[in-house]
Design a protein that fits this description.
Length: 207
């Protein structure tokens, strides 16, 4: 492999973690950070400079049926969106390294705070996408695309610990039309949603 037009050969690197096997990975807007999802529901942040883990976060499941993290999306501001499922229902979690508490701006490079949890109990989420305005789109195995509107007011924070707000993100009317599960989603700058399905079609939606 070669890096662009510089003709420098890329050196393979191996990232080793003590967490269960990785289920997916995504690079962030930060040039030195990589996130990987694990089978136990946790997320690992890596340094691509030292090839070493920085910190892990997320609800690890040690008993019962685990909810593996299989989809990760990172916004330009560093907000991490993860989708996990245990084959019966799905959960989308939103994390940030920067929060507001009591009028103060708090930030920690080695910590990620859970801001929001979105539950999907009617189907299994196969993919997620995030719009420029923070709107969350989830594609499900039942062929629907659900739209979750970002709250207008800032999300509260309780003692810098994870918590759940059931109604912070409002569900809009779902996008329906596929005859098979939605496996991929893409968004354009002009607010169009592109969805790929197991019914062998790609549909374009006006958001």
């Amino acid at each position: 492999r070669w890096a662009g037009y510089t003709h420098r050969r890329l050196i393979p690197r191996t990232l080793q973690s003590r967490l269960p096997f990785s289920t997916g990975a995504v690079a962030t807007s930060l040039p030195d950070t990589l996130y990987t999802g694990s089978a136990d529901g946790s997320i690992q942040a890596w340094s691509t400079v030292t090839n070493s883990p920085r910190h892990s976060f997320g609800p690890r499941r040690r008993g019962g049926q685990p909810a593996s993290v299989y989809e990760l999306v990172v916004a330009k501001d560093g907000t991490v969106y993860s989708a996990s499922t245990n084959n019966t229902n799905s959960t989308v979690r939103i994390y940030s390294r920067e929060v507001q508490k009591d009028g103060l701006h708090l930030s920690h490079p080695l910590r990620s705070y859970l801001l929001q949890t979105i539950f999907e109990r009617r189907s299994v989420v196969k993919c997620i996408a995030v719009g420029l305005d923070g709107t969350v789109y989830t594609g499900s195995d039942d062929g629907t695309i659900r739209v979750w509107a970002k709250p207008l007011a800032p999300l509260p924070l309780r003692r810098l610990k994870p918590f759940r707000i059931m109604d912070a993100y409002r569900a809009r009317r779902p996008l329906e039309g596929h005859d098979g599960g939605v496996n991929s989603l893409a968004l354009s700058k002009d607010n169009k949603v592109y969805s790929g399905s197991r019914d062998a079609t790609i549909r374009v939606w006006s958001a």
